[in-house]
Amino acid sequence: MIVAGFGFRSGATAASLRAALDAARIAGWPVTHLATIEDKAEALAELARLLVLPLIAVTPARIFGLATPTRSLASQAARGAGSVAEACALVAAGPGARLLAPRSISHDRMATCALAAGVST
After folding, report:
1. What is the Cα 29 distance to its own chain's centre?
2. DSSP 3-state percent helix, strand, coil across the chain (nearest 5)
3. Tens digit of each residue's pLDDT (9 = 90 or more) over 7-21
4. Do the beta carbons of residue 91 and residue 6 sit within 8 Å?
5. Contact, 104 vs 16, CB < 8 A?
6. How do the domains of the chain map onto residue ranges?
7. Spatial separation of the C-alpha atoms in residues 65 and 62, rounded to whole Å
8. CA angle, 47 as apex, 88 and 84 as ends, to 5°?
């Protein structure tokens, strides 16, 4: 299982989300699931449908206080995690998951995406 976790601003477009995903997949990892914080899942659903991938909605409590390699002050203040994308990817990929790389940022800086591999991968 390889999960693409997303963090994004309210004004992020489908193109922003896709750009962040494309940047994260530069190494060619085969993404099997998308994930984001539950109150933003609706905005990511269009991309999930387009890619025919399951979408995992992560509760805010599951990422609060989770250590991530990236430390965004905005993310820390808003969600209690250094990177929403990295935290959602790790939580959605399950216990023992590992990040494949730090988050990638869309060209317009509206969305971030990080890939995490579950232990079965």
Report:
1. 14
2. 40, 20, 35
3. 999 999 999 999 999
4. no
5. no
6. 2-117
7. 8
8. 20
DSSP annotation of 105: E
What are the distances in angstroms from CA 40 to CA 24, 27, 31, 44, 69? Answer: 19, 26, 19, 7, 22
Q: Provide CATH code, domain 2-117.
A: 3.30.420.180
Q: Which helix (H) or strand (E) holds 89?
A: helix 84-93
First to last CA, the chain: 6
Structure tokens, 39:
């109150």
pLDDT tens figures, 31-88: 999 999 999 999 999 999 999 999 999 999 898 877 888 888 788 778 878 799 999 9
